[in-house]
Amino acid sequence: MARTTGPFRLKTGSLPLLATVLTLALSSHAVAATPPPAAPAHLQTQPVPAAPLSWAEQVEQLKAELRHDPDLSAAWVARVLDSASRNARVHRLMTPSSSSASYASTAPDWQEYRQRLVTQERINAGVQFWNQHRQTLQQASEATGVPAEVIVGIIGIETSYGRNTGNIRVLDALATLAFDYPQSHPRAAERADYFRRELGHFLRLSQQNRLDPLSLRGSFAGAMGIPQFMPSSWMTYGVDFDRNGQTDLIGSTADAIGSVGNYLQAHGWKRGQPAWQAVSLEKVNAAHLETLLQPDILPTFSAAQLRDMGVQTGADSRPLQPGTASNAASTTGTPPGNLFALVKLRNGDRAPQYILGTENFYAITRYNQSSYYAMAVLELGASVARQATATR
């Protein structure tokens, strides 16, 4: 309602009763139309935020949510969840200020990162793994289109070929991150919701596969087995590659190999496409370089767009040292019809290196969202393949 802005005047001495009535009426109107002045800020009542639910309250809430799940026994769920405990180490490792948490996804120095993961010891162990499972690797590669060396590279980086699969009870890791995710994380609520869902998947996985949820051990994030699959990935991408009637990523190397190949295939791996190419940027100006780097690892540019911005590949490019895999780099130019990303690999205070990542490079980063991780996988797998071939 519009408010009166001008004064209302009556002549002095005329119709005093009417004036009084009108004055009272106008005053009443003004009170009705104009809200009272706000109280001083320090006197205003602020809404009290709801207190966060306790661990026990969240456990009861999840029990209630899962009570009607046809794949789960409510009594069994209750017994398992009541057995979960907060793991202080998990909480510390997931706290953003911790330098121990997920160093692979934040490594600023590619050469230092590579030296830490692509070691001769790991290569030698990879050759042994390759020779022992050569036939299974070949079958998985033929079935999924993912080269054996990429599968070997992932399993080698993740668990040193099954030698280090984690020693934290998975139930405790997932419960800690679901019910007590570090609040200092900028996406704490979102991450807690993710791990809450993973905890539910873990319960389904355990009951469906007759696994003991109180004894299963894995990483501080709840990843399990030879390939370090999260429960949802195990249920979605795990395959019974040895055809024994059960998908076992803890005790069956064949299932682990087949599941890694299946995971990459499901995330867009293109059969026969190289994962990356060496590149030269000598003819790329600053504006184009900024444009090329903006999408980060997401394949965005066609071969024609790269040429238009001065990017040189193939025989005209400088190779990335040390070494490349047979499937990882091409010297014949960019395949037509594919998309690429210019990936920057930082080397601390030294000059960065650049590669041209393909859609297959991006598929590897769906396993771990880090260009450093993907390059380490490719370098390790290539080194194992070369040495295994040379010593055969």
Offer a concise description of the structure.
By secondary structure, this protein is of the alpha+beta class. The chain has helices spanning 16-33, 55-66, 74-82, 88-94, 110-117, 120-132, 134-144, 148-159, 170-179, 188-208, 231-237, 253-266, 286-293, 303-308, 359-365, 371-390, and strands at 168-169, 217-218, 276-280, 312-313, 341-347, 350-357.
SSE map:
Layout: H1 16-33, H2 55-66, H3 74-82, H4 88-94, H5 110-117, H6 120-132, H7 134-144, H8 148-159, E1 168-169, H9 170-179, H10 188-208, E2 217-218, H11 231-237, H12 253-266, E3 276-280, H13 286-293, H14 303-308, E4 312-313, E5 341-347, E6 350-357, H15 359-365, H16 371-390
Antiparallel strand pairs: 1-2, 3-4, 3-6, 5-6
Descriptive overview:
With 392 residues, the protein is α+β, with helices and mostly antiparallel strands. It has two domains: 55-95 and 114-266, Bacterial muramidase (Helicase, Ruva Protein, domain 3), CATH 1.10.8; 276-365, no CATH class. The chain is built from 16 helices and six strands. The protein has helices at residues 16-33, 55-66, 74-82, 88-94, 110-117, 120-132, 134-144, 148-159, 170-179, 188-208, 231-237, 253-266, 286-293, 303-308, 359-365, 371-390; strands at 168-169, 217-218, 276-280, 312-313, 341-347, 350-357. The protein has a four-stranded antiparallel beta sheet with strand order 4-3-6-5. Strand 5 (341-347) and strand 6 (350-357) form a beta hairpin. It starts with 15 loop residues before the first helix and ends with a helix. Mean pLDDT is 85; it is low at 1-34, 99-107 and 315-332.
